[in-house]
Amino acid sequence: MSTTAARSRARAWPAVAQVGLVAGGAGLLEFLTQSGYISPMVLPPPTEIVGKLGEIVPSNVFLDDLGSTAITVFSAFAIGAIIGLLIGIAFWKLPFVGAVFEPYLVSMYSMPALVFYPILLALLGLSKAPIVVIAASMALIPIALNTMVALRAIKSTLPKLGTSLNCTRRQIYWKILAPAATPLVVPGLVLGFIYAMIGTIAMEFILASNGIGFRIGYYYRSFDVVDMYAYILVASIIAIIVNVALNRLERRIRRDMQ
Amino acid sequence: MTRSPSTFQSETHAATTRRPTAADEGRGVRFDGVQVVYPTSDGSIEAIREVSGAISDGRFVSLIGPSGCGKSTLLDVVGGLRRPAAGTVAINGEAVSGPRRDTAMVFQEDSTLHWRTVLSNVAFGLEIAGVPKKERETRAREIINLVGLSGFEDRHPRELSGGMKQRVAIARALLLDPRILLMDEPFGALDQQTRMFIGRELLRVWDETRKSVLFVTHDIQEAIYLSDEVWIMTARPAVIKAIVPVDLDRPRLPEIMSSPRFHELSTQVWELLRVESEKALNIRGELP
Amino acid sequence: MTVTSDPPAETAALAAGQLEGRRERRWALPAARITVPIAALLIWFAIAPITDLVPSPAAALAELWQGFADGWIYPGLASTATAVLAGFGIGVLTGFPLGYLLGRNRIANRIFEPLIAGTFAVPRIILYPVLLTLFGVGLLAETGMVAISAFFPIIMATSAAVRQVSENLLKLGRSLRANRRQLATKIVIPDAAPAIMVGIRIGFSISFIAAIIAELFAAKEGLGLMISEAYAALELPRMYAIVLLVMVIAFVGNILLWSLERRLRS
Q: How far apart are CA B19 and CA C20, in angstroms?
């Protein structure tokens, strides 16, 4: 048993180092702020920020912001996923159309779709709608591209197998093509969700009336440094948790399907 | 198929234990109790248990064995890319402790540098060794001519077929003018016709240069056609099971493959190899 | 007998295969691709008369031309360009070497890669207030924002690209007794170059986006600030003109880096 213990200890060393690094960094900042090397107007002591975090998380303001941001992210993701999947399937079914639009779709990755935000604000007013449009348009790109690639990558023997087994069209789609494409579609969906989240928080940050991103900008503008840092911290923690959780989910699905 | 493999083993084992004659002493490659162990996440795997033997100067030796038996590992040890857990490999009397000037390797997969032309690929070894550009390119052109790639000097690897890429790799190795050429299944990724053709080319070049060659393959015909000796390795942990001397006349033409003697040798090698391949498949659970 | 008597059968087959196919479709695809932006422009023309919120393309283009003729666009353009180029430069100069280290050093990789990858979903822009409190509103904070945004895709792409260098080529390098520097400059970096370029291209796009977002939030000068000022004053043709300019710059920059990437790939 001692060998397995030693082995798991050997596997855990990077985690130990990571925790050490983060704790060390926080400790250093604590020292620099407490001793006055860094002004509290620039960075309050980390302990103070974490203490504030404890106050913020149960507060109604935070829960309302969180709910608002979550609703925006989920609706943007849902719209982006549906449109993205449809585009991906269409580009696979109609290769010429796919070839025509693919470079535009790819370059949308790099296009500051976000600069349309003021235009959408002008068109749709200061509400959730412009944010949902931008975030959904960011989410749909990886979903569409991955779906197209996933369907194109299916070996031609698989549908042939279906035909040879007298599958109906419906069965070929649902029992063969869909599961065969899933391992590559899922990463697209994961990326799409993350983009929806990044887009939402970034747009809220620029201009919105509530939401986590908005609150960071709001506290910056009202010179409330401690609250600002606490909100930046909580937004980062949420994003990291979502990222890690989705990656785990993706790995599990891919492992089960492949 | 009537004689048991063990008969062959005792018959050919004499070659393994033959003491080197005075003329051989120190020349070529000597293996002395080479053992190779791979560290893995749970413990270690013994890839090669014990290999001893000698390749005398200018001989063409093929190493054949079941897949995953450690042939390439042994080649890496000679090339100085891997240290044995025990034993030594000596080249011309010097123990190998790292990559050497007098060995050159040709790898199984494409090892051309895809961003360079054929000429600059072939000259790459000399470039690393610090030979001036003019000199190395003049010498590279000669070797390119020798391996039959004249006219392709300025092409990029993507414009070449698999067989031509391997010729680039062979030319790169030959340009270093090594005493010993180490070839790790160099034609493994090629189709049968290309293999035959490039094998004949290799023999022609070898006849002109007479390097010592250690050639890893899993193709019995190829091994016999090319070699002076065929070394047969066992399944992991590997030892040399037998050495089959190939007593066919040189220069050899592909027609020799239909001769009765060639057929005899093939059967002999196959019989020795068959048991080991079954063992190897059993280890990997591919046989019931 | 130094030259092979029979030409390698492989070569001829290869040459024949490469030239064939796709010839009749050659013009159709680019033609169809060009119609896409034209169609978008036509839709814009069609929508403009319906609503006051969308100015006509002609008005937006005229405004843009005015911007260059009168010169009111230059200060903002120069400011944004400075922030993007300086920040992107810092992102490359830090992200590339650190990415190389991360890709080649197993220990550094095991420790830092999960930390960096874990923060992938954190919108970098929320760090902008930190930079603003540190440097105040201005070019410095904006450049810092751009550098942070460019750094992550570049370090991640470089690390992954370097790690994917073929084992065979590394073996070749070692067997030729290449030293550390030769291994880096003659094998690892050239082999990884196309994949590194992908990261640099994405890094550039993100640099540009980051600069515009940062300016939309708080800046002294810049195209993003001009967009939000035009929005606040409801000068719609001007707002559309600047958005159009930003898109064109992003598109051209991306195409340039993409063609560089393709040249490396071949």
A: 61
